[in-house]
Write a structure and sequence with these properties.
The protein has ten helices and eleven strands. A hairpin with a 3-residue loop joins strand 2 and strand 3.
Length: about 350
Amino acid sequence: MGDGSLSQDEIDALLQGADDITSGPEPTGMFDSPGSRGGSSFSSGEQSNLRNMLNSAISLVAPSLSGYLGGKNLVLSNPVVESKSQNAVRSDFSGKYVQISMSYSGALNGVNLVIFNFRDAGIISSLMMGDETGSVPADITDAHQSTIQEFTNQFISSMATQFSNKIGGGVNTTPATVSIAQNPSDLQLPPGDLVKITYDIIIDGVMNSKLYHIMDANIASSLGMGSGGGMQSQQQSQQQYQHQGPQTQISSVRFPQMGESITSGGYGDIALLLDVEMTMTVELGRTTKLVKDILGLGEGSIIELDKLAGEPVDLLVNGKLIARGEVVVIDENFGVRVTDIVSQDERFKSVNK
């Protein structure tokens, strides 16, 4: 109103706004993305956890996938997460696609469906088959399907490893199954509510496109809730410790950092050891067998190791673990790209074994 006073309608609107502030946000809400239809609800904290977990996982998975592409650098980034119904997901697609399905079990349970544009699948399979130009084949043959199946198997298995590390439980995968979707009705979407994740996928000089990951809502919910559990448990443990009986006053002893003694005078005394040779070993995995099993080994025998596909290999110096990494191909030789340096505490534990 012109005189500065409020009408009854304006007063009612202000009171309604105050009620909204007092009541606070709803306990759960849909993924805040355009076009969402149906699906289970997630809190804002779970949404943030899921996005952070996906970003963290793909940053570690992408380099291992580059090894399949003839040295071409691959970048996966910007996961866009949408909670949708099956019909809403199908309406997002048109044309012909290559689809690969894999399931999780264990700490995560549900189905993953990875969808490639038909052209993108042809480029990736051509690179994997040795065509450095990544030219699109006239048709996706069985050989091309097999290569894109292996690429996706590595992608989903590596993601499972990263998820397992985050949520603190083992995640198993089923073999990948590949098929051609002539139209959206052929997409083999997981049952129930779905979460659609769209990644930017870039292969240097060859492709700049989208990769689609359709995830069972059960998996997304478990990931959203699981990534924060470790911190919460740690805080609860600290609170329980603080509420225990009388505490003894303990003062911390400060020891000089190892780097200080080594670098205070250049290399210092460690210079005496710089020309000492040490044996560096890359360990793919281990297993335990009975004598009768070992005696029964022959050409063609397969030995199952204690590591999942895509899991980092161990880098040992004189038999002691110092780092972890991923296997890469350099020209015609194998190599290891270091992805994680073992902490000092873990190295000391290894030394004392």
